[in-house]
Amino acid sequence: MTRGTPAILSAIHILTKPLGEALLAVLRANRALLHERLQSDSSFEEVRRLREEVIVAADWFNGDTEDPTWGFVQECLLLLLTLVRHLSAELKLFQHTPTPSAARQRTSEMAPRLPPDVLSVGQQQTLGTALQFVVSLGLCPYLATGVGVPLGRRSTFGAMVDKLVRCGAVPAAGHRLFTTTSVLLQLTELSSLATLVFTRHLGDVLAALCQLGYQPCRTERSGTEEKKLSAEECQTCKEALKSLLGKVYQPMIIKELLILQGGSKQVSHGSSSRAASGSAPTWLKGLCGQLLSKLLMQPKGVQAVVRAILEGGTGGESDWRKCDCVARILVTCPQQSASADTYYRQVCHQILDLLHFKDKLTAQQHQRVATRAVLFMLQEKPSMAQQYLLTPLLRPLHHCTTGNLQAAVEEWELTRCMNDVYKVRTTKHYNGVISNSIWVVGNSPSASLLKALEQVLPVIFSLFCFTKQNVSHLRAPCQEILLWYLRHAEKPAALSALRQLSGLQGQKNEVAADFHFTPGSDGGARLSSRERCSEEDDALYEKLSGEQWRLECLMQLLAELKDRDLPGDFFLDLLQELASWAAATDEDKEDEPEPYVSTMTLLEVERRLLAPSSRRGQRLASLQVLAVMVDCLQHTVLLRKTSQVVDFLMSMLQRACVGLDQAPGPHLGNPVESETLRMGMGVVATLLSGPEISIEDYSSMSRLLPLLESLSQKHADVVIQELATDLRAVIATHGAYRPENFPAVAPPSRNPETTVKNNSVPSRKKQNMQTEANNSRINPQSSLPDSRTSGTRNLSLPTKPLSDWLLEACDPDVPTRAFALRVLTQMVQNKNPEAVQAQEKVLMLFLENLEHEDSFIYLSAIQGLSALADSYPERILERLLKDFQHGPSLPTSNKEHSLESRLKVGEVLMRASRAMGELAAHLGRPLIVVFLQGTRDPDQSVRASSLSNLGELCQKLDYTLGPLAQELSSCLTALIKTEMEAEVRRAAVHVITLLLRGLGDKTTQVLGDVLLDLYRALKWVVRSDPDDVAVLHAQLALEEIDDLMRRFIFPEQKLEKKIVVLP
């Protein structure tokens, strides 16, 4: 920095320093002191020379003015222009001076050269003081009323200055304002000085330029017109304003224009009661509105408006109110716009760009503005919103449905589209309403938004199915968008969407046939062309597997809707369609006339021949969807309300009533349908036996009365007739009438004194037993208590001796036998005295039923044997180990199914091992011997079962396993390296994993001698085993070892304070 710059700034400091006197006296004294120093002090010689040059060029300077404030302002302006002239000359010299060599610049002593216009902090403070005097005394006093923020509303000092300079009439105010503004604009030509001007006085400069360039002619109080600026001067101000709007930070410009448009009312902090308050004049409001509209419609104008209003916010309640105001401003077409279409075309795409911010707070505010703007446009301009907002937003998804080769969609397009549609950042509206994404504003979904999303729903579902097969960050957005639509769409629209997604409805808006989604490089997805399969079998397999996978993905979505009625409604809709097939088939056969092929065209003949196969294909697809729903979804999701259960039963009874007028032979020969019908009636009986049955439930079940009447009169099965009659009577009387043997979990809803007694026929006992068995088969958990529950959940059954239950456990009827086995299991668990005495008979009965082919029977037997082994372990385990080792020992056992029986006994032993707990150390030694011997069995299934049981048992043994560690390690290592069957190798590796998890931190103590051998065996599997599943198990085991050794080598540091009491 040269010596001239400090001298000039020293002169400015002399002029602006306070002296502690009255303001006018200070201004006169400082001005006189400056003139004296300029004439006498040799250090100011350069300043004096430059000042004189400026005076010569300044035609506005008047040295004989009698106004002390304007004279002071003139001196400030002269010194500022002197500084500008000096710095400009120094900058030119600096730019033409050659830079030092590169070798010299690399020395540590050499600091980089600074430009001469760089000012120190003290110099900036001095310059800022001078600018404040210039604005306060030479600019603000000459602004018209309502233009800019008055000095009186800024500070106490400003109010004093305002009172001082406005005490009398000011001549040539317009020219003084023009002079001050011109000098300030000359200062802004230097970047270092422009920063000081714009950061502190931008609003004042804008107000001055607006008044000088656009204020209409006004009349002074004396009635004469004030002397106007020339047309050239006005045009200069207009061009300066236009240039200023283009080069200054746009949010600052917009903020200042909004303040100008609102007038002095907008700023009330620190205002004086004597300060005049008034709104901006009409011409200024119109000018600011026009300028704001131009700034809004230019590129990134929307972002600038949002930043101007919301910048510096904290995300509180007031910020959300501002967001709504900004959104309202954006969607309102200004009057200055040529046409609404032009305005929305330029603004709407900028609104969508607000969704792409990364900063958390900024993103929340900008997304709030975007979502509110979308909502306001949909309410006020739906056609414009659809054309300029929703269509561009969803364009990548719409491209996926086209069949052109150029329709490939890149990864970034899909990622941006899905992230725009789904914005997971939850924001809170000021009135307490939650807003989750662009599709939900105020938790009130718009019909237009739902309609727009419905058109691309198949594409989003296809993308979701793809992400379920890969690791992709688009999975969560796709799932949430689909769930949101299914939750908020109307029931008919949601059911139609589910039919389309499941393949039951015509393919519409699906992904183009020649394209498919492929993984992207950044974890997303892209749409690319598909390579066609050359083999028809491969193409068919790919199509069928794809359809099956789509159904499974759809079931996962429905499982997430467990708190909604939609899964049940869709399930019942399919069942209703299923019930109508039989009747429709009979009507088609009766009403179908004989075709006259001779009078039909070839196309009509082809359509007629293909129609039956098309209907059959549609029905098979519906059956497949039903099967997948039943297999994947729990009954609590499918039928979560009583009304849905009733609808389900109504569909079942309707199917049963179809064809009742036909001959009874087919019905007697179809036991599956009769069994299903009995189960359905058992469900009705369970509902009627509930603890609280409301009037609405009875009203819903009254729809079953006509169907029950038809079954009671026309069905061929006598038991079903009696069941239908009883159920119809209970429903019709709302529980006032109940048969004696009707299931009674709760008392009737009517007064018991009015209950009608019924003389039951002998077959009622069998009917009641059948109903109870059916109920237990439908929901065993609701009928039988778990082994860990207390006795308060026992069955509500008539008391029967043990012999009756033993007899029913041999009944050929599957539900009756299974129910009896469950009851016997409960007796064993509850230590029933009769069951304790007859434990040998019960054991034989369970072993016999273990060989039954029905899974409901042998699983009940497995549960019973597990309960026996838990209650009497020593005796029962010995018998089970013998059967597992040598096969079933009962005389009636089928030797051909010996392998299946051994595996079932292995399941019993595995459950018993899990239930041993601390007794495993005492009871586990014989089991380990048998399981180790089983690893050498000729059959691979027995070997795998033995290893599985061994792993379960070893988890419970803890330190007892120490003496057997060598033998166990040798067995597992040999199996891993020599076993030919992959299933057995997997089981051996899994035993090591279970062993490590069971021992935990005790591993280094119990398996210290063999841990290295096990580690080497696992590494051998990872390197050499061809089976991927075995390698995966080995990797899991190695992770367990890694965690154990890390904890062993680097134990957790515990900060403990020990207090020892000395003797």
Distance between the ends: 81 Å
Spatial strand arrangement across the major sheet:
1-2
Mean pLDDT: 76
Number of strands: 4
Global outline:
elongated
**Helical percentage:** 55-70%
Domain TANGO6 HEAT repeat: 296-563
Protein name: Transport and golgi organization 6 homolog
Organism: Cyclopterus lumpus
Domain TANGO6 N-terminal: 3-294
How would you describe this structure to a colleague?
InterPro entries: ARM-like (IPR011989), ARM-type_fold (IPR016024), HEAT_TANGO6 (IPR057407), Rtp1_C1 (IPR019451), Rtp1_C2 (IPR019414), TANGO6/Rtp1 (IPR039600), TANGO6_N (IPR057347). This is Transport and golgi organization 6 homolog. Belongs to the Tango6 family. With 1063 residues, the protein is mostly helical. The chain is 65% helix and 1% strand. The protein has a two-stranded antiparallel sheet. The protein has a two-stranded antiparallel sheet with strand order 3-4. Strand 1 and strand 2 form a beta hairpin. The protein is elongated and about 135 Å long. About 9% of the residues have low confidence.
Brief characterization of the structure:
Helix content is 65%, strand content 1%. Residues 219-224, 266-277, 424-436, 663-669 and 744-798 have low confidence and may be disordered. The chain has 48 helices and four strands.
